[in-house]
Amino acid sequence: xxxxIEKLKKFLEGSPNDCFLHHAxxxxxxxxxxxxxxxxxxxxxLTKDPTYVATYYHLGKLLxxxxxxxxxxxxxxxxxxxxxxxxxxxxxxELQAAWEDLVY
Length: 104
What we know:
Blueprint: H1 2-14, H2 19-31, H3 35-48, H4 54-65, H5 69-85, H6 89-103
């Protein structure tokens, strides 16, 4: 796992604003139990490209696992807006299901 993290970090040196690389690195950090580092990379994506839909679901799940229900609800709701605007109905339905699990 550390090898993948190191490779992604190396790739990021050449493309520091690549949302895909930040997202992939965040997922690896989650697998490694380093959720604060993962959160940092997800938040980077939301700052650099708020239309990067995949970030919303995974950040919401991370917040849920850490007992932050309202922030997770807010992230899912914003993600639904972004997914709907992008006409990404698959992402929209995943975000909606996660949102509903918390709200109802």
